Structures are given as C-alpha cells and as structure tokens.
C-alpha cells in the first residue's frame, strides 16, 4: 500500500515536469516569467487598450449627439422687476421714502 501513493506522487511529478517542457528549478520559473510577460504584452494589454479606446469613442459619440428626447427649456424666464427678488418686499418704495426724508 505504501508504494502505491509513492508511485502516484512520482507520476504526478513526472507529468508536471513533462508539461512544463522538462525544465526544473530556476530555469522553470524564469521561463514561466518570460512566457507570462509575453502573453501580457501580446494578448492581454492590447485587448485592454482596445476596450478603453472603444469606451472613449462611445463617450465622445454620446456627447457629440445629444439625446433627441431630452427636455430643453424653450421659454425664457420672466425677469423679476424687484431689487430684492422677493414678492412681498417693497424695497424701491422704502428707498424712495428714505431719500425724501
């Protein structure tokens, strides 16, 4: 029974060693680092850049063509003829009466 798990463990180690190209130790780690770096710059980074460019184009297109169903105020606001802007205030008459006195 003891040799069974040893044989299984040896088979797993052999499989991993063969799948990594037979490299072991520092050279194995270095080769994986090089492969990962190449994969990043050849596949991952270009796809991220493409996505970012598409989002920027979509945002620019959205601002260039405003929503046709957006509400736009057509009337100009009526200006308030009072100085204070309050309906109940009567500042002009108060200033006139002070100037007369």
Automatic annotation (TrEMBL):
The keyword Transmembrane helix applies. Residues 74-101 are annotated as: Disordered. The chain crosses the membrane at residues 20-43. Keywords: Membrane, Transmembrane, Transmembrane helix. This is Uncharacterized protein. The lineage of its organism: Eukaryota, Viridiplantae, Streptophyta, Embryophyta, Tracheophyta.
